[in-house]
Automatic annotation (TrEMBL), chain A:
This is Carbohydrate ABC transporter membrane protein 1, CUT1 family. The keyword Amino-acid biosynthesis does not apply. It holds the Pfam family BPD_transp_1. It is a multi-pass membrane protein. Residues 69-283 form the ABC transmembrane type-1 domain. One of its GO terms (cellular component) is plasma membrane. It comes from Halanaerobium kushneri.
UniProtKB/TrEMBL annotation, chain B:
Keywords: Signal, Sugar transport, Transport. GO terms for cellular component: ATP-binding cassette (ABC) transporter complex, substrate-binding subunit-containing. Belongs to the bacterial solute-binding protein 1 family. GO terms for biological process: maltodextrin transmembrane transport; maltose transport. It comes from Halanaerobium kushneri. This is Multiple sugar transport system substrate-binding protein.
């Protein structure tokens, strides 16, 4: 009983629309407005003044913001392909019809439903010089392994956070891939079997093309989530050592809530939004093009 | 320095010093800017509202290098697992505030000794903590003042400081406080506050000063270049003075 009349559509749209408007659109418009002022978190005695493009000019010369953006870019370039591939692999694994596959689906999904702060704190302990990971490496190498302070070393800190982020996030993408995998009709595979295609060929010419839309969605959403990298860094390293894990979001947060400069951090937010918008649009166009070729 | 070396040489001492480096935040400014002041430097030039030349001046760089060397030489742990080094007797000396007096006496009892701040060019310690205030737009400032007047009577202050280990902030209350009165275990705190303590800069730019200083110390202690980090911090602080229009 589908009722496509305007009244029921509006009724169903209303709650989500109100929430989006109040918590997403409105704050963003406010940020855009504030980015042209010298608004402080604690009202300054001289009040808030219009300062034109001052904040934007300052952002262009901001070395820390640039460091943050570079780290973000590295994070996206490493994590997005790896996490997407891993999610697909896991989805195929737990889709195999054997006893207990539901159990594994739950296991892989648990990190995703655990709060990021909790995950970060636990992984900080794992990565500690006296932590579980170093202890394990020491015992399997019979003491040859010298404990590494993973999060306190400029070369290992960021990869450690990447690894942990992938572990935490991969379950969600796996679930989306799994749903899409179950949508592919069995008859395709049966036909391929009769034609003599092996498993690898079936994966390449049936599974992958059938998952095209899902993959596009997963890649774009993972990219956006990866750009928002904040909680892990804030809890585990606070951007250090020597800014090797500093991200744009962390910089925006520091400017607003540590240095109380709301106007400036609003300007950074607007710039950051534009960067992500452009990247998402490019991705969409690029991924849609390949779809038409198939 | 020789004392630190001798302590480190003892078998039962893993680290001569405990600096509570896990607490990256206001502790860094409160705890470590006194070293800079003791070396003859400061966070900013307080007359000119300028950091350039003070926070990254020769004496500040010297202080930073000295502090960094404590970690490079293994006298202190740059990444302690938590606030247990002193209580678990892993570290011999603990650089901390009066708030740890109660937990420390509980753990060490009679073995706990309070030492004066180290002297370089001069001595310096931090000061200032949570404060009471009445806001500008308070609807009932008189009632608020009456309340504060009552709460801040010497007997009431001592009740608070007995519980949280803080230094009583009125001379009349100091005289009533068992640990802080003349001859008490903690009278050294009162003495130092009256003579060598340096307040943190009172300026609207303070949030930036403390954050920039904390970041710089955190960065050079974990391997960065002292001068480069202090240069960055000074530049950020001066930018804020300019932004606020008070330089």
């Amino acid at each position: 009983m589908l009722r496509n009349d305007k009244k029921s559509i509006t009724t169903f749209m209303l709650p989500a629309s109100i929430l989006l408007l109040v918590f997403m659109v409105l704050p963003f418009l406010m940020a855009f407005g504030l980015s042209f002022t010298n608004q402080r978190l604690i009202e300054s005695p001289r009040g808030t003044q219009f300062v034109g493009l001052t904040n934007y000019v300052r952002a262009l010369g901001d070395n820390l913001f640039r460091t943050g953006l570079t780290n973000n870019a590295i994070f996206v370039l490493v994590v997005v392909p790896l996490q997407t591939a891993l999610a697909l692999a896991l989805a195929i694994l737990v889709n195999i019809k054997v006893k207990g596959n539901k159990f594994f689906r739950v296991i892989y999904f648990i990190p995703t439903v655990t709060t990021m702060v909790v995950v970060s704190v636990i992984w900080s302990f794992l990565y500690h010089p006296d932590g579980l990971i170093n202890g394990f490496l020491t015992s399997i190498t019979f003491g040859a392994w010298d404990g590494i302070d993973f999060l306190n070393n400029t070369t290992t800190a960021f990869p450690s956070i990447m690894l942990m982020s992938m572990w935490q996030g991969v379950g969600f993408q796996m679930l989306i891939f799994l749903a899409a995998l179950q949508e592919i009709p069995d008859s395709f595979y049966e036909a391929a079997d009769i034609d003599g295609a092996n498993t690898w060929q079936q994966f390449l010419y049936i599974t992958l093309p059938q998952l095209k839309n899902t993959t596009t969605f997963v890649i774009i959403s993972t990219t956006i989530l990866a750009f928002r990298l904040f909680t892990q860094v804030y809890v585990m390293t606070n951007g250090g050592p020597q800014n090797s894990t500093y991200t744009a979001m962390l910089h925006i947060y520091n400017m607003a809530f540590k240095r109380l400069n709301i106007g400036y951090s609003s300007a950074l937010t607007v710039i950051f939004f534009l960067i992500i918008l452009v990247i998402s649009i490019i991705q969409r166009i690029a991924l849609n093009d390949t779809e038409e070729e198939v | 320095m020789q004392i630190v070396k001798d302590l480190q040489a003892l078998d039962e001492v893993e680290y001569a010093l405990d600096f509570k480096m896990f607490d990256v935040g206001e502790w860094y400014t409160y705890g470590f800017s006194p070293f800079f002041q003791a070396f003859g430097a400061d966070l900013i030039d307080r007359e000119a509202n300028q950091a350039e030349g003070t926070l990254n001046g020769e004496k500040a760089i010297e202080a930073g290098k000295w502090f960094k060397s404590l970690f490079e030489n293994g006298y202190a742990n740059q990444n302690p697992p938590g606030d247990t080094e002193f209580i678990n007797e892993v570290a011999a000396l603990s650089w901390t505030g009066h708030w740890n007096y109660n937990p420390y006496t509980e753990a060490l009892g009679e073995d706990l000794v309070l030492l004066p701040a180290p002297k370089f060019e001069k001595q310096a310690t931090g000061m200032g903590s949570w404060a009471w205030s009445i806001t500008n737009n308070s609807e009932n400032p008189e009632a608020a003042w009456k309340f504060l007047e009552f709460v801040l009577q010497p007997e009431n202050i001592v009740q608070m400081t007995d519980a949280n280990g803080a230094v009583p902030a009125r001379s009349s209350a100091v005289a009533l406080s068992e640990p802080y009165k003349k001859g008490g275990d903690l009278n050294l705190f009162v003495e130092q506050l009256e003579t060598i303590a340096v307040p943190r800069p009172v300026t609207p730019a303070y949030p930036v000063i403390t954050d920039a200083f904390t970041t710089a110390v955190d960065n050079f202690v974990s391997g960065g270049d002292v001068k480069e980090e202090l240069d960055n911090a000074a530049q950020e602080i001066d930018q804020e003075f300019e932004y606020l229009g008070i330089n």
